[in-house]
Structures are given as C-alpha cells and as structure tokens.
Amino acid sequence: MIPRHLAARVRRALADRPVVLLHGARQVGKTTLTRALAGATPVRQYVTFDDLTAMAAARGDPAGFLAGLGRRAVLDEVQRVPELFVAIKAAVDRERRPGRFLLTGSANVLMLPDLSAALVGRMEIATLWPFSQGEIAGVMEGFIDAAFGAAPPTLESSTTGPSLIDRVLGGGFPEAVAMASAERRGAWFEAYLTTLLSRDVRDLARIEGLAELPRLLALIAARPMALLNHAELVRSAGLAPSTLKRYFALLEAVFLVRTLAPWHVNLGKRLVKTPKVLLVDSGLAAHLMGLDAARVRSDRTTFGGLLESFVTMEILKQVGWSATAPALYHFRSHAGDEVDLVLERRSGPLVGIEVKSAASVTASDFRGLRALEEATGRRFHRGLVLYAGSEVIPFGPRLFAAPVEALWRWGARAASETHRSRQ
Fold this sequence. Notes:
The chain is 40% helix and 18% strand. The protein is an alpha/beta fold. Helix 8 (164-170) crosses helix 15 (282-289). It has helices at 7-16, 30-39, 52-60, 62-67, 84-94, 133-137, 143-147, 164-170, 174-177, 182-198, 200-205, 213-221, 230-237, 241-253, 282-289, 293-298, 304-319, 367-376, 406-409, 415-421; strands spanning 19-23, 44-48, 72-76, 101-105, 123-127, 139-140, 226-227, 257-260, 276-279, 327-332, 338-344, 350-355, 380-387, 393-396, 399-403, 413-414. The strands form 4 sheets. Strands 10-11-12-13-15-14 form a 6-stranded mixed sheet, with helices on both faces. The model has no long low-confidence stretch (mean pLDDT 89). It starts with 6 loop residues before the first helix and ends with a helix. The chain is globular, with a radius of gyration of 22 Å. It has 2 domains: 7-127, Rossmann fold (3-Layer(aba) Sandwich); 133-416, no CATH class. It contains 20 helices and 16 strands.
C-alpha cells in the first residue's frame, strides 16, 4: 500500500476531536486509509453503508444504531445515511471524548443542506484527493513551505520516473495509476464515470433523469482552467440556467469538479472576480478530452490548460499536510494581467505561480507576476514560473523560473522518514 501523506493529520485530529470527517471522490483510497487507521486502534469498529443491511439499520433507528457501536467507530460512506448526523451530535454532546467517530464520505456533506450544521464545532474535516506525485514517488513534498521560505528554489538531484506528459495523462486515482497501459486506464475511467454518475450523483439528486450530466462534464473538461461562464455552458449544454447550476453543484458535491476563486483586495484596480473551473484529476480530464501522449506531443496547444490544472491540484493536495497551509486563488485584471495561482498565507504574504507548457521561459512570461508584485508590494514574497524545462533560472530578486517537477522535488523528504517522525 502506498502511504498517504494525509494519514498523520487524520491521526492528530483523532487524538483531540470527537468527530473527524475524511471525504473525497470515490476510489481515491478513503476506505484503504480508514481501515489502516482502524487496524492501528484495536477497539475501533468499522461499518460501511455500502452494506444495505447496515444502511437500513442506521436509517431505521439512528440513535439505537450508534448505541450498539463500540467506543470508537469508523462509519464509511456516511452521506448515504443523513439521518445519522443529528444522532451523532447528540451522542457527542452526551459524551465528548477524542476519536469517537471517524466518518468518511464520497460526497461533500458541507454542500448538503442542514447536515454539516449539526456538527459545527465538533468535527474536523480532511479531504483526501487522488495520489500526489510525491506519494507515487515515495517522497513527502515540501514545495509550499519552501516557496514561502527564504531560500531560492533548488533541485539537488536529477529527475527520475515518468515524463511530465505521462504524469499529467496518468492522473492520481490509485487504480488508474496501477494500470499497465493507457488503453486499460481509459477503460477504467469510463467505468468509473458511468458508476459514479449513475449511482452517487443520482442518490444525491434523488431523481433518475440526469442524462445531460456526462455532456456537461465533458464540456467542463474541454475548457481546463477556464473562467466559469454559466451563459456559455447553458448554450453549449442545452440546459436551463437553474438546471445547470444544480448539475454543477452535484459535480462539485461528488468531488469531480472544483472552482478556484479569484484573489482580490481593495487595490484601487478593476479585477476580474469570476472563478476558474477544473476537474480534480488531470488523467480523468485527459480521458474526457480524448488526449493521449502521441496527440499531446504532436500538438502542444492541447496541453497548456491541462498542465495548469495538474499543477493546481498538486498544490491543493499538498495544502493538506503543509505547515503553511495557504489559501489558493487566481488573479486576473481587466487590463489582461493574470497569474494562474496565488497562494496566500493567513498572515498576508503571497506567492504567485504561472504555469507554462513550453520548455523555455522569457521575461514576458513574468508579466502577470510583475503586475501582482507591483499591486501587492511587501506582501509579494515570491513569483515562480513553472515550466517544462529542467533548470532553475532567476529573473529578478523575487522571480524565478523552475521546472514543474519542483512541485515534488524542492523541499521534499523521504516519505518513510517523514511518516516515522510524525507518528
């Protein structure tokens, strides 16, 4: 089993919070991780609501079901039994002790009406995404903390493993990563989408008629990291505006799609305040776009947005174990200056990141970063252009070009050493 970097955070949460929710898309490894955590605690009972008998028992008598569990329990796929949340709240209020319930869900309960409110102040939430590149390589990434540090970017060892194109097209779903060929991976993605859209999304929607949903997902995939344009999607998908918004919320709820909010503050400038939208796995997006390695190598114009979404998700995954834990945004002005990613610490400092699929960088590639630096002054800590080359190159005191692989090489430590130190 590939160790998950988020495991240490979940263990720490279980040590001092009565309820911990581990949620994420289907097939990202939540069950594997929770079974490992349950196995490490002999008295932790495991129940999955994919089991129809367990689901019926919990729905029929939520309080009685909880009373029959041991002192510590894992409740898997808890979104299938929304009746449990009020009963969990009551049980925790009667006896508040750490690690009592570890919940998992393949739907974001924070987007389900009235469910999350029941556990406000009682629950810590962690999101498990598909494998990061560091998890696949056996290293604990430290890119975010290094980017906010004082030292300039450095890559001390040569890169090994798959090419950048193969990494992006492969994505991070555990079963897809293990596939021996692109053809078998494509078949897995197809089956995954069919099952997810016909089961989990239908359960959330409480209706059968969701025939337009695959087309909407394909349209979103075809526009990686585009600004979210509801009017355009309404025209292209042939949906009513209200239906589009509802379908989009469903795709977000099952962790297929997410948005990247715009960064803005009162700078005296006009800024675009529309979010960007992306699929949460670049391999799944590439499958929906019909991309393979041969096509990308022959036409690099197909690769830019997909690479940007890949970088965005790799950084978002690292936020889960980063000590800095910044918020992620994008920056775009009406004058045309833009920065693909803005990382903002709670204390104020910013790191801007541009993503380029080219193998070389010029001064013009730093236009957006220089605009952000000018607009934010002392808050601007560093600007990075991540590109498909192999060298770290300074373009100013706070501006650098660095290979995309810096994401899992700059500041990285051996995962085995890091996991031992955090036990």
